[in-house]
Specification:
The chain is α/β, with parallel strands linked by helices and about 350 residues long. It has eleven helices and twelve strands. It has a ten-stranded mixed sheet with strand order 2-1-3-12-11-4-5-10-8-9, with helices on both faces. Helix 1 packs across helix 9, helix 5 packs across helix 6 and helix 10 crosses helix 11. About 45% of the residues are buried. The structure holds 3-isopropylmalic acid and manganese (II) ion (MN). The site of 3-isopropylmalic acid has 5 residues, from helix 4.
């Protein structure tokens, strides 16, 4: 039996509700495929911060490094000033554990509605590889003369050759392993951000020489948004920086059916990776049992896939497909025709067979 130690951070808002369903589904898959998932729960989040004054306790990163993976719900609490928990927990984990890839598949499952007219599952199936430790997220900059008429705000995008290259290299490898259109699009803004994307573009075409089987392509970020709506089938794998990746994957989530189903993985291929639904803590739905747990369930599926448990992961994906095509009225909170835990039961039921 394969044993995996998994750290679970349900977090804030609806995080605990969706993670409970994710764990239910992971346990169903474990039972069927003979896995032993050993979950350890952590209370990091807004409530703990308000109680203790610390976002992450000392030693948290060292502690989390012992796990095979981290399963995260959502971070964000309306009673805490924006930025504190995001930077103090989510970004601190991504940066501290050097999870330099944020992998976000944009897949439309049969039976799920997309807001794109006349588009279906055959049109929407691509993956965004988002750089996850640098760029405008690095926190470089500051405020001068704050609160005076002469105030200056500077926020710089940090792009290192090492950081850019490892991300691009991952994207090429991923595109090859995915083995679909074998096309990698660099999404940037070379016409304006002539320093940062000069480095990205040079690195991209240098690394590309090692991947003659992959077709290379470039699109500005604004054009990428346009094509994602106009002709999403154009894309296979997109690689981009941290902020552009953040923005285009919210657009991606919408065309794949909404935040209710969009999942992602923060990967450190040499360390501990963390899997999460890409949406937030949705405070207004907290405790109502109406939030869609499929994004968290799909994050669990990505986690098993990443751990090499491809059969169990496939079974979860198949069960999700069954659920969305037969049982759910909508992906949106409150409109599914089922409660949060009923959706978890449905998926787990398909896995048990
Ligand atoms: C995401 C989120 C985070 C980000 C926020 C909560 C810091 O929007 O995971 O996409 O910007 O990366
Ligand atoms: Mn985001």
């Amino acid at each position: 039996m394969s044993t995996y130690k998994i750290a679970v951070i349900p977090g804030d808002g609806t995080g605990p509700e969706v993670i409970a369903e994710g764990v239910k589904v992971l346990e169903a898959a474990s039972a069927r495929f003979g896995l032993d998932l050993d979950f350890t729960w952590y209370d990091y989040g807004g409530e703990r911060y308000l109680r203790t004054g610390e976002a992450l306790p000392e030693g948290a990163l060292e502690d989390l490094r012992q796990y095979k993976a981290i399963y995260l719900g959502a971070i964000g609490n309306p009673d805490v000033r924006p930025g504190i928990l995001e930077k103090g927990i989510l970004l601190a984990l991504r940066f501290g554990l050097d999870q330099y890839i944020n992998l976000r598949p944009i897949v439309l499952y049969p039976g799920v509605d997309t807001p794109l007219k006349d588009r279906g599952p055959e049109d929407i199936d691509f993956v965004v590889v988002r750089e996850n430790t640098e760029g405008l997220y690095a926190g470089a900059g500051g405020l001068l003369k704050k609160g005076t008429p002469d105030e200056v705000a500077i926020q710089e995008s940090i792009n290192t050759r090492k950081g850019v290259e490892r991300c691009i290299r991952f994207a090429f490898d991923y595109c090859r392993r995915r083995n679909k259109a074998k096309k990698l699009t660099l999404c940037g803004k070379t016409n304006v951000l002539t320093f940062a994307f000069d480095l990205w573009e040079r690195t991209f075409y240098e690394v590309a020489r090692e991947y003659p089987d992959i077709t290379t392509d470039y699109a500005h970020v604004d054009a990428t948004c346009m094509w994602m709506v106009k002709n999403p089938a154009y894309f296979d794998v997109i690689v981009t920086d941290n902020l552009f990746g953040d923005i285009i994957t919210d657009l991606g989530a919408m065309i794949q059916g909404g935040m209710g189903i969009a999942a992602g993985g923060n990967l450190n291929p040499e360390g501990v990776s963390m899997f999460e639904p890409i949406g937030g803590s949705a405070p207004k739905y907290t405790g109502k049992g109406v939030i869609n747990p499929l994004a968290a369930i799909c994050a669990g599926q990505m986690m098993l896939d990443y751990l090499g448990e491809t059969k169990a992961a496939e079974a979860i994906e198949d069960a999700v497909k069954e659920t969305v095509s037969h049982d759910l009225k909508s992906m949106s909170a409150g409109k599914m025709g089922h409660t949060t835990s009923e959706v978890g039961d449905l998926v787990a039921g398909y896995i048990k067979g």
